[in-house]
């Protein structure tokens, strides 16, 4: 099987090709820019230039042909030998400065950054950055047109109702490996210029993200007749952000007015694929071609005003800000179904999304020192997202399959109900220094969340906190504790049912089966809304027995107890402990070591019930189940840095290891059974060794070696190969991450110029 | 296997995978090479005159007599460049005294102690190092003489770091070049300090976050492509946990604008807070999820049939099972538009 790089449907270029194309544009731009500013710099007072150019090579040796996890963010996931080019330049005169930094210039995650300006005056900042995100290098699909918004099956592909026989043979015959990845390219330009107490800041950022992401293309109306294939959906996003602000800074006050505009544009509004299933599956009428909406174009505008006053009576200071923003989206809606055989009885209430959310953010902080040693802070924070979309009923067609329900009294007649949230936090904190270096603190917070069209309209949480911090000659000690109690007002699934189902359907249900008029079980409590007691505490001790040694111990615990929850998340208990130490046994040697262990235990429960026996089974405690998940992640690292031979020789050796295990256990009710699941594991080990030697003042060179080993066990992907039908009626795209061992060797020389 | 698509043929040695090493790498090398030539040309244009020596200004001549090493490490900083070369106000003209206060009494004391052999009284000068007896507030007041209320520091008063007694010099090495100080987290990028992200700066106190960055699902911090300061403003942010934006979601939309919507069909907890489902500092589960699917989804979904079913060991291939709600994309095997749908038939987030 041969790896096929996704290609642009228009130009036919691969992602890498597109990247090279972009590079051809960016480097000349940077060079032109530098040459353009150089006469100005040269004309200025004589200055200093210093910097370095690093040239070298790196070689990657992997024990696997491809290892996407290794190169996820570097784009280097296979055996390769590549050039290394870094550059850093600083120009400084008494008046002007220019700093340029280019990193990994010959690698897929390159970046260039320039800052220049006049000291105490204007400043210009330019950045360019490339960021790959390699999701899989061993994905596989039979579809053609990868990268485009229309995927088709190869001529001769043999579909079927079930993945077996000819269809399975066809899958194997036509499947081919593809890369699933995105590539992000960001260009930024910022400018600021002061004028007395005022400062104007203007910035612009352009982000382009291209590639593919997994999308599950499903048909069917229920689990019994569901068929799906996971596809590489196209990504071609452009985001333009612009911001401008005017700042004032006085002796004891400051103010700022700012405007922000963000426009997101998706070149692919929808995505079409040819069905590999027959027109009828288990009596359901499937479309020959499915169609999905993709992320819609949207915009966000915000205007903000902020300011502060200092040196007020009682040694007080005030900071306040208020932002008003609007998120908008009005893409044309696709039809209810892409299936020409779908009978549409009720037309759509509107043709475009017509969605708008108003955002308001307010913040006020007042700090004061009314008496010696006492600090008081009062905080007010309000964040509101107010959904302004029309509350219309849509009668949906499930997955381009079959026809629309007639009338508005069916279960598919749903309001696209606006969802608004207002979050208000009021905090009062005080700390008192009981003796030099030692302070105690107390705090109170009231947090209120108000929501529309949810199970509860309002949750209120009261939090009390206390702490002690002490610094002494050989270190520091800190203790903190807080207890929060959140209450939900009148939590009811019925609220949600009535908010989203059409009035006609609610009326119908009330007449026919009021006892089962719910979607989620009435005893479910969603953890974001449920009553909760949260207990947090922590302790830290830092010891510095000598000026060149320190030892730190840190412990944190957070326990959430959803005390009234019968179903849903019942508790979450997170604890972590860290010990770290740093010591410099000699002026030229530094050693460090750390160990962190983190444990998260969650308990959740539910009741298994089926639609045909909803009334009976939803009330049957024998169908209860509980799931306990325990995540344990120890992380260990150590390192040594040596600067020897009058700092001509730099040596370093670093090691890090993270070893995660997730154990999932079950407690089934009498009517259920449960087999155990294997643990989910992932382990990463990294070793990094570097030696750098300065041959002369102008030249240095070095060698580097990096070792990385990764292994994982995950039952959800192990034994589920890409483009397989191992999963019940789902043709996959991605497989498990590859375990790998990687060796990276580097050799480089550095030319240093300028400097005194 | 060869493959023919609409745009081009990919088979044999043609295409991206082919080509010798030199040919393959020249295309990577060309642009950086031009770039380096241009930079070297610039460096040549601006080369310093031979034998130039920097004249120390009067303001620091007294200090350098005893503190030569300190002064030498300070001279390359932006502070030094501006204050010595182009001071913006009277305070900056005082150079060392701008931060350390009037040196007259300290010098007199030091001279006396040099004769008598006693220890210098550090209370006569503002010391900002580990030896300092100043409170956090006193230390910070030194920097806030110039840096209060402007730019990213506008919300320092009342911020969590201020309230917890963090000082400017805990993070900023006042003797280090500004470029180095500004790149909080970018230490990770500069070999050999790759793992020092944790031991330096943010990770020194936020040790559990340092460990989370090592998990299999993570944002590209340890690769040096992101920094803590891309999301958080350590000097005081608009949002919770010193986030730069007013809410968690607005912070996430800074890079993930496609998730911003708004959508025709919103998924309420998604609009509430991305961290209801995602653990941004690192996770043992794919896509930074807080827990394993389908159990994460079942913390909020308990409807009839599959949402309420118990997904246990019999559903995996090793035990002869093939449960689509449990394997691979689990619930997303149908509900693929989990961040919200803009399709009129998308209330179940399937289109």
The description of the largest β-sheet of chain B is: 2 strands, antiparallel
Strand content of chain A: over 45%
What string gives the helices and strands of chain B in order?
EEHHHHHHHHHHHHHHHHH
Strand content of chain B: under 5%
Note the main sheet of chain A. Answer: 26 strands, antiparallel, barrel
Unreliable stretches covering 5 or more consecutive residues of chain A: 1-22, 39-45
Radius of gyration of chain A: 31 Å
Number of helices of chain A: 5
Keywords:
heterodimer; A: 756 residues; mainly beta; 26-stranded antiparallel β-barrel; three-stranded mixed β-sheet; globular; disordered N terminus; B: 351 residues; mainly alpha; two-stranded antiparallel sheet; 2 strands
Question: What is the secondary structure topology, with strand pairs?
Answer:
The complex is a heterodimer of chains A (756) and B (351).
Chain A: E1 3-4, H1 15-43, E2 48-62, E3 80-92, E4 96-103, E5 111-118, E6 123-141, E7 150-151, H2 165-174, E8 176-195, E9 198-219, E10 227-249, E11 253-266, E12 270-274, E13 280-281, E14 284-285, E15 289-293, E16 298-312, E17 316-329, E18 355-368, E19 374-387, E20 393-395, E21 413-415, E22 421-435, E23 438-451, E24 458-472, E25 475-488, H3 493-500, H4 503-512, E26 532-546, E27 549-561, E28 568-586, E29 589-607, H5 614-617, E30 624-644, E31 649-668, E32 680-694, E33 699-713, E34 730-731, E35 740-754
Chain B: E1 3-4, E2 9-10, H1 21-45, H2 58-66, H3 68-74, H4 78-85, H5 90-93, H6 96-100, H7 104-116, H8 136-147, H9 160-163, H10 168-171, H11 178-182, H12 196-199, H13 202-205, H14 207-212, H15 248-253, H16 268-272, H17 295-298
Antiparallel strand pairs in B: 1-2
């Amino acid at each position: 099987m041969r790896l096929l790089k996704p290609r642009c449907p228009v130009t036919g270029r691969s992602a890498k090709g597109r990247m090279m194309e972009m590079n051809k544009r960016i480097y000349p731009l940077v060079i032109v820019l530098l040459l353009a500013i150089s006469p100005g710099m040269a004309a200025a007072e004589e200055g200093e230039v210093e910097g370095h150019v690093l040239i070298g090579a790196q070689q990657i040796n992997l024990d696997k042909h491809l290892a996407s996890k290794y190169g996820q963010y570097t784009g280097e996931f296979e055996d390769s030998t590549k050039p290394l080019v870094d550059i850093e330049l600083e120009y400084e005169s008494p008046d002007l400065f220019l700093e340029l930094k280019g990193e990994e210039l010959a690698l897929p995650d390159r970046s260039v950054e320039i800052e220049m300006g006049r000291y105490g005056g204007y400043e210009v900042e330019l950045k360019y950055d490339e960021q790959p995100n390699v999701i899989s290098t061993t994905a596989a699909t039979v579809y053609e047109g990868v990268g485009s918004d229309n995927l088709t099956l190869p001529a001769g592909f043999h579909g079927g109702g079930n993945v077996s026989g000819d269809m399975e043979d066809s899958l194997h015959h036509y499947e081919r490996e593809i890369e699933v990845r995105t590539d992000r390219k960001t260009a930024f330009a910022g400018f600021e210029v002061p004028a007395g107490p005022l400062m104007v800041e203007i910035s612009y950022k352009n982000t382009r993200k291209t590639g593919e992401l997994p999308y599950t293309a499903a048909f069917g109306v229920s689990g019994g007749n569901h068929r799906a294939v996971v596809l590489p959906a196209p990504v071609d996003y452009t985001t333009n952000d612009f911001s401008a602000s005017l700042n004032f800074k006085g002796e004891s006050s400051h103010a700022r007015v700012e405007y922000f505009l963000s426009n997101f544009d998706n070149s692919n509004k929808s995505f079409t694929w040819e069905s590999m299933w027959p027109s009828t599956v288990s009596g359901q009428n499937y479309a020959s071609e499915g169609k999905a909406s993709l992320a819609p174009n949207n915009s966000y505008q915000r205007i903000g005003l902020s300011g502060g006053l200092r040196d007020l009576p009682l040694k007080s200071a005030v900071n306040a800000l208020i932002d008003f923003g609007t998120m908008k989206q009005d893409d044309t809606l696709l039809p209810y179904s892409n299936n020409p055989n779908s009978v549409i009885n009720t037309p759509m209430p509107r043709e475009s999304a017509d969605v708008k959310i108003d955002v308001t953010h307010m913040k006020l902080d007042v700090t004061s020192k009314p008496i010696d040693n006492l600090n008081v802070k009062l905080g007010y924070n309000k964040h509101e997202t107010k959904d302004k979309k029309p509350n219309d009923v849509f009668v949906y067609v499930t997955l381009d399959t079959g026809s629309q329900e007639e009338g508005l009294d069916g279960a598919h007649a749903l309001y696209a109900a606006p969802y608004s949230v207002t979050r208000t936090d009021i905090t009062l904190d005080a700390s008192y220094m009981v003796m030099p270096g030692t302070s105690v603190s107390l705090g109170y917070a009231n947090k209120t969340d108000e929501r529309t069209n949810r199970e509860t309209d309002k949750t209120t949480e009261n939090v009390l906190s206390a702490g002690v911090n002490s610094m002494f000659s050989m270190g520091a000690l800190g203790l903190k504790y807080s207890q929060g109690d959140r209450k939900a007002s009148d939590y009811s699934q019925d609220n949600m049912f009535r908010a989203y189902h059409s009035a006609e359907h609610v009326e119908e249900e009330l007449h026919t089966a009021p006892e089962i008029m719910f979607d989620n079980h009435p005893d479910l409590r969603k953890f974001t809304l449920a009553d909760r007691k949260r207990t947090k505490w922590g302790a830290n001790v830092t010891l510095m027995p000598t000026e060149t040694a320190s030892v730190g111990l840190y412990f944190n615990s957070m326990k959430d107890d959803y005390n009234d929850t019968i179903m849903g998340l019942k508790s979450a208990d997170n604890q972590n402990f860290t010990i770290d130490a740093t010591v410099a046994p000699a002026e030229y040697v530094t050693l460090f070591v750390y160990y962190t262990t983190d444990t998260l235990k969650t308990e959740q429960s539910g009741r298994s019930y089926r639609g045909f026996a909803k009334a009976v089974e939803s009330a049957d405690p024998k169908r209860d189940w509980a799931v306990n998940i325990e995540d344990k992640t120890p992380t260990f690292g150590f390192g040594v840095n040596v600067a020897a031979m009058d700092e001509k020789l730099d040596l370093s050796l670093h090691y890090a290891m993270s070893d995660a295990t997730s154990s999932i256990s079950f407690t089934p009710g009498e009517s259920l059974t449960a087999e155990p699941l294997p643990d989910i594991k992932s382990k990463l080990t990294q070793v990094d060794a570097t030696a750098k030697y300065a041959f002369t003042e102008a030249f240095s060179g070095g060698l580097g070696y990096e070792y990385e080993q990764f292994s994982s066990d995950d039952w959800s992907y192990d034994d589920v190969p890409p483009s397989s039908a191992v999963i019940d009626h789902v043709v996959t795209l991605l497989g498990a991450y590859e375990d790998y061992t990687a060796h990276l060797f580097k050799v480089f020389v550095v030319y240093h110029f300028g400097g005194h | 296997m060869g493959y023919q698509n609409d745009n081009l043929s990919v088979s044999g040695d043609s295409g991206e995978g082919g080509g010798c090493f030199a040919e393959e790498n020249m295309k990577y090398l060309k642009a950086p090479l031009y770039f380096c030539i241009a930079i070297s040309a610039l460096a040549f244009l601006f080369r310093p005159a031979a034998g130039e020596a920097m004249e120390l200004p009067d303001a620091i001549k007294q200090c350098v007599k005893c503190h030569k090493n300190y002064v030498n490490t300070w001279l390359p900083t932006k502070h030094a460049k501006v204050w010595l070369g182009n001071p913006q106000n009277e305070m900056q003209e005082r150079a060392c005294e701008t931060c350390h206060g009037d040196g007259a009494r300290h010098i007199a004391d030091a001279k006396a102690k040099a004769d008598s052999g006693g220890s210098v009284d550090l209370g006569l000068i503002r010391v900002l190092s580990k030896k300092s007896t100043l409170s956090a507030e006193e230390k910070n007041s030194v920097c806030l003489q110039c840096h209060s209320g402007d730019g990213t520091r506008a919300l320092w008063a009342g911020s969590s770091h201020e309230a917890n007694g963090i000082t400017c010099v805990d993070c900023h090495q006042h003797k280090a070049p500004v470029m180095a100080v500004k790149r909080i987290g970018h230490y990770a990028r500069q070999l050999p300090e790759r793992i020092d992200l944790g031991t330096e700066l943010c990770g020194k106190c936020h040790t559990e976050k340092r460990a989370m960055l090592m998990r299999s699902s993570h944002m590209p911090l340890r690769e040096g492509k992101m920094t803590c300061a891309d999301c958080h403003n350590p000097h005081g942010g608009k949002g919770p946990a010193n986030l730069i934006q007013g809410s968690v979601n607005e912070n996430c939309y800074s890079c993930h604008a496609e998730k911003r919507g708004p959508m025709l069909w919103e998924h309420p907890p998604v609009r509430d807070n991305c961290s209801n489902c995602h653990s941004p500092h690192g996770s043992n589960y794919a896509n930074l999820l807080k827990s394993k699917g389908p159990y994460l989804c079942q913390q909020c979904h308990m409807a009839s049939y599959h949402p309420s079913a118990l997904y246990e060991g019999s559903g995996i291939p090793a035990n002869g099972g093939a449960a689509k709600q449990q394997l691979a994309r689990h619930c997303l095997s149908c509900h693929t538009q989990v961040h919200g749908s803009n399709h009129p038939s998308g209330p179940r987030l399937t289109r």
